[in-house]
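debug: dumping io for the single-chain case to check the tokenizer round-trip. Nothing else runs in this session.
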Amino acid sequence: MVKDKGQNTRMLKSLTLRISLSVILFIIMMAGLYFNILPANQ
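debug: decoded output
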């Protein structure tokens, strides 16, 4: 990682945003499978 003086919070915020978006996408996909919006392979 690149050292950036005094900008620790920017990296933390961007990492938190990436993780949050990934979790939200996973939840949406699981809900789609549960409610049969997305077809499952059978």
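debug: round-trip ok. Helices lie at 8-34.
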